[in-house]
TrEMBL record:
Protein name: Conserved oligomeric Golgi complex subunit 7
Keyword tRNA processing appears in the UniProt entry: no
Gene this chain is encoded by: LOC106175709
This protein's GO CC annotations: Golgi membrane; Golgi transport complex
Keywords on record: Coiled coil, Golgi apparatus, Membrane, Protein transport, Transport
Localization terms from the record: Golgi apparatus membrane
Record membrane topology: Peripheral membrane protein
Protein family: Belongs to the COG7 family.
Length: 744
């Protein structure tokens, strides 16, 4: 039987698992478990005895070795102390060497400085001698006309001059060298021009090397630009002179095609000659655009003078320039390693859009003229009242059609840069329309006074005018939202919150898309536009607030106009109440009628006519209130009927009108009653009957009589003895008038 005692070494040793495993490993069926257990215990005891023997032997050996270990530790301590002393001595030696070395290094440095100065002096003497030698031979070299030798001599003199910076006549020598360079450049200029005109790569490469060596490479670029700029300007002049029957649109289209073709061919050629071909060719196009004769602004101005719609004509020209700008932008991007942002790309973009900057600056004038012309062509007034109301309604779509076109035009023509100008033009446009609208209302009042018209037909017309005001408000709110959205989406992208340098915004976007820089000339105009965007981003409620207020006021005027039309009939019935003879007539009531109860009296005709008139108002409002009419609801919300309180919401328009008419009638009725100088007892009872009738009519309409009406009725009913008591909490003016009227 083999037993595994290695398990006793495990950290997680489990005695139960070990015993069970030992019994499972016993395969002999003839051996009983108790016999097997006895054998296993015996083996464990033997194993324990063996372990004890090993431990005892190891302990005795450790005890025997302990003195020797102590002696070895003492020896190590002595060696460590000796090593520490030696390291201290070495450290002192190192410090001494460092000190001595420092002094030696300082001396070596001084010697090296002396050597450098002597070497510099030697070089200066050599270069001075070299300068003298080169200066003496230079005239002979120039006489030889050998440009390579001349260039070599000038380079040598240039190198010598770099060493002779501290000589007294350094400036004079620099001027002398520049004059020599000018002589070489003058000698080379015809050959350089010929090489560029002939597109000779070999010659151009030679001249690039020469001009680069003498630090005159920018001058070589100027020769290159001058040669090709002259060719392009001649092409432009030919296009204009040979196509007189065409316009600047066709001229620019053809010339831009030639410039774009030049860009591609010259970039390919320059890439074999110059280090920055895209920059050099872009500068060529920039200089060409600035030197065109006749200039693009001049041609555009002449073109616009012949057009009835300058803005549309300007957009036509701009589209040609923008196609060219897009082509150049794509070409530059194909050669650029990263996003466009180089100075030469920005300068070229500015040159392409330069002719349009003055028009963007005057954009407000152009838009005002266009909108004013359109407004003058919108009919607002006719001979007949019905026709005037109709054309007023039709004017809304025409009015906002032009405004929406202006919105689209601003995006296309100015890329949003003209929105401040457009907003001002739109404000003037709508305010002028509002003035015309009010003028029409005034004319309608005069026509109504002079004509014999059905009052309810006039009321229907006035409601249509109110509905027109609602349509104006709805349309202006829609336009307002569109304007704010367009401003944020067009200008908001161009005005990132980037740091400013010297008052200018650092361009971090494609210069061909930075329209605020391309089209807006004045810094303050750009800042104003940025401020507008900031306000909109901070949730500015409206950009047409002035127009909204004006149209709301227009709705108030229209409501007053409609009210006056409807109220005219009530006014006609009530305006002579104070002068009726019944109030003072002695024959109006006799002894017989004086004792009759109040209910035996009938209301007079004037008040019954007022009551019947009020009862008919809902049916005349029905055509406008039974159908969904958001325009009328908006107009009522922004307008205010006389004698009504301002409220945000209401259930029925008819209720508002009834309330307005009823309160107006009660107000006028009370004022007329208070004008009655004196009243008899019978007339007083009759007046109470009239007031009761009006109160009943109001009750049928779901309305309540005013406090003034109630107070008058109370003071007319009360006896002389109770008058003071009843009138105690009433207005003094009312009490005084009623007391005098009744002769109390």
């Amino acid at each position: 039987m083999i037993m595994d005692f290695s398990k006793f070494l495990d950290e997680n040793f489990d005695i139960k698992e070990w015993v069970n495993a030992a019994f499972k490993s016993q395969k002999d069926p003839t051996v009983k478990k108790d016999q097997y257990a006895t054998t296993m215990v015996m083996k464990l005891q033997m194993f324990i005895q063996e372990v004890n023997n090993v431990i005892e032997e190891a302990s005795q050996q450790a005890v025997q070795n302990l003195p020797r270990v102590i002696r070895e530790i003492e020896a190590v301590k002595q060696e460590a102390s000796l090593l520490q002393d030696q390291m201290r001595m070495v450290k002192e030696d190192i410090q001494k060497v460092e000190h001595d070395t420092s002094q030696s290094m300082q001396m070596l440095l001084q010697l090296d400085n002396i050597k450098s100065r002597m070497q510099a002096a030697s070089n200066a003497l050599k270069e001075a001698d070299n300068w003298s030698t080169l200066s003496a031979d230079i005239e002979e070299v120039f006489d030889s006309q050998d440009i390579n030798v001349i260039a070599e001599k000038l380079v040598g003199m240039q190198q010598s001059l770099q060493i002779l910076v501290d000589v007294p006549d350094y400036k004079d020598r620099c001027q002398h060298l520049e004059k020599l360079k000018n002589r070489l450049e003058a000698m080379l200029s015809p050959q350089v021009v010929a090489a560029f005109n002939a597109k000779s790569l070999e010659s151009a490469q030679v001249y690039v090397k020469i001009f680069s060596n003498i630090d005159r490479l920018p001058q070589l670029y100027k020769y290159y630009h001058k040669c090709h700029k002259t060719q392009l300007l001649n092409q432009w002049k030919t296009i204009v002179e040979t196509n007189q029957e065409e316009t600047v649109v066709e001229w620019l289209s053809e010339f831009y095609d030639q410039m774009f073709s030049t860009w591609h061919t010259q970039v390919q050629w320059c890439s074999q000659v110059f280090k920055e071909p895209e920059k050099i060719v872009s500068q060529l196009l920039t200089e060409t655009l600035a030197a065109m004769e006749p200039s693009i602004p001049y041609c555009i101005a002449n073109f616009l003078e012949s057009k009835s719609s300058p803005l549309d004509a300007l957009m036509e020209v701009l589209q040609v320039s923008e196609r060219f700008a897009k082509s150049i932008e794509t070409a530059l991007e194909s050669h650029a390693e990263g996003p466009l942002g180089s100075e030469y790309a920005t300068t070229l973009a500015m040159a392409i859009y330069a002719p349009y900057r003055s028009y963007v600056q005057r954009y407000e004038n152009y838009e005002e003229a266009a909108l004013s012309t359109h407004l003058n062509n919108i009919p607002l007034d006719k001979q007949e009242v019905m026709d005037s109301v109709r054309v007023l309604g039709e004017s809304v779509n025409k009015l906002f059609s032009a405004a929406n076109k202006g919105n689209e035009r601003c995006l296309k023509l100015t890329h949003g840069c003209g929105y401040i100008s457009l907003l001002q033009a739109l404000k003037n446009y709508f305010v002028n329309y509002g003035k015309e609208f009010r003028r029409v209302l005034t004319n309608l009042r005069e026509k109504i006074k002079m004509g014999d018209n059905d009052p309810w037909a006039l009321f229907q017309h006035s409601l249509r005018i109110i509905q027109t005001c609602g349509e104006l408000i709805l349309h202006v709110e829609e336009l307002d939202d569109s304007l704010m959205s367009n401003i944020l989406h067009s200008i908001g992208k161009q005005t990132p919150s980037t740091p400013k340098i010297g008052g200018e915004i650092r361009l971090r976007v494609n210069p061909f898309h930075q329209y605020t820089e391309l089209l807006i000339e004045k810094v303050e105009d750009r800042e104003a536009l940025e401020l507008l965007v900031t306000k909109l981003e901070e949730e500015m409620p409206s950009v047409l607030e002035v127009v909204k207020k004006d149209f709301s006021a227009l709705s108030v005027d229209a409501h007053r106009f409609a009210f006056d039309i409807v109220f005219a009939q009530i006014k006609e019935h009530l305006q002579e109440v104070s002068t009726m003879e019944i109030w003072t007539s002695a024959s109006a009531g006799g002894a017989l009628t004086a004792d009759l109860p109040t209910f035996s009296l009938s209301p007079q005709e004037y008040i019954t006519q007022v009551g019947q008139y009020l009862m008919t108002i809902p049916q005349h409002l029905e055509p406008f209130t039974t159908q969904d009419n958001p325009a009328l609801l908006v107009a009522v919300k922004h307008g205010k009927l006389p004698y009504t309180e301002e409220q945000e919401s209401f259930e029925q328009i008819a209720d508002l009108w009834l309330e307005s008419m009823a309160r107006g009638a009660m107000h006028m009725y009370c004022e007329e009653i208070l004008k009655i100088p004196e009243i008899t007892v019978h007339a007083s009872r009759q007046l109470v009957t009239d007031i009761d009738y009006l109160s009943n009519v109001l009750d049928d309409l779901g309305l309540q009589p005013s406090e003034t009406v109630k107070n008058i009725e109370t003071l007319l009913k009360c006896s002389k003895d109770n008058f003071d008591e009843e009138s105690e909490n009433m207005p003094r003016r009312l009490v005084s008038v009623l007391k005098g009227m009744r002769g109390l």
